[in-house]
Amino acid sequence: MDPGRGRRRRDRRRGHPDLRARRRRAPQQVAETVVDGIKSKNPQSVESVACDPTEIKEEFDPDDMPTEFDVKLGEVTESGDTATATITITVEGQSFDGKLKMKKKDGDWCADDFGM
């Protein structure tokens, strides 16, 4: 019997720090969460990955959004502790490109600037 086997199993259940570190979000995941939150008009989803959730409350009001629109995630690029994602929003046949800026905060990626 492996004496460390039980300890490893307990560490997984408790969320051992080494295991939690592996579950950190990547910029791609943050950008996908933002796009999905916009598509579903769900500010809580976007707030969950925001560096400053209060900024989202000021900028993202589902009641001000058009009834029909499309949002697409383009390229996500990472450079050190910052990343940028291209987001295209199409409303009534007109497309608007924006940049979502992300940064590492406390070792995890978060959405920092919603330049839409």
How would you describe this protein?
The chain is an alpha+beta fold. It has a single domain (25-115), classed as Nuclear Transport Factor 2, Chain: A. It is 37% helix and 34% strand. The chain contains five helices and four strands. It has helices at residues 3-14, 17-22, 27-39, 43-47, 53-59; strands at 70-79, 82-91, 94-105, 108-115. The protein has a four-stranded antiparallel sheet, covered by helices on one side. A hairpin with a 2-residue loop joins strand 1 and strand 2 (82-91). The longest helix is centred in the first third of the chain and has 13 residues, at 27-39.
Kindly provide the radius of gyration, computed on alpha-carbon positions and rounded to a whole number of angstroms.
Answer: 18 Å
Biggest sheet, strands in spatial order?
1-2-3-4
- Separation of the first and last Cα atoms: 58 Å
- Tally the structural domains: 1
* Morphology call: globular
Low-pLDDT runs? 8-22
Give the class-level CATH name.
Alpha Beta
Helix proportion range: 25-40%
Which CATH-level-2 architecture? Roll
β-strand percent reads: 25-35%
What's the rounded overall pLDDT mean?
Answer: 83
Largest sheet: 4 strands, antiparallel
Count of helix runs: 5
CATH topology annotation? Nuclear Transport Factor 2, Chain: A
